[in-house]
């Protein structure tokens, strides 16, 4: 490595040709400390992000005329139909989820109600990660089913229309 003579010979923080490294000045110390802060912060954050173990839950509709993302469905119902089972596929970290599922109806007045239940229903999903929610058909329209699984809430859009 070739060093050239600095244009300002009074500067003591630049090595001169033929000399060793310049002594550690306050300016160099502060600059080094300032540059090391982002590196230390990044190094500390990476292991924390890699060690994160937050579970990912999904709920999709498994029957009827389902949208591509599985979050909307349309059922063609006849005037004489009284109920339908809303089939759900449930996963936890990509594997079938087995455990309690709570569901709430929203905007369903005059359209749907839980069969024999109040505003919320809690059921256990089957071993294969499926759950059937019994819904009474009261009329035509669109409503939402808010599914809570593992602390995650997923909103599903359901429409009853004439068959």
TrEMBL record:
Residue ranges of the TM segments: 29-49, 137-160
Keywords for this protein: Membrane, Transmembrane, Transmembrane helix
InterPro entries: TAT_signal
Protein name: Uncharacterized protein
Source species: Microbacterium azadirachtae
